[in-house]
Amino acid sequence: MEKTITHLPTSDYLMDTEGAMLEMEIPYTLTNPSYLNAKRIIDLFISGIVYLTVFIWLYPIIAILIKSTSKGPVFFKQLRHGKDNVPFYCYKFRTMVVNDDADRRQATKNDPRVTRIGAFLRKTSLDELPQILNVLKGEMSVVGPRPHPIILNESFSRDIKNLMSRHVVKPGITGLAQSKGFRGETKEFYQMNSRFKLDIFYVKNWSLLLDLKIILWTSLALISKNNNAY
Question: What pTM did the predictor assign?
Answer without folding.
Answer: 0.82
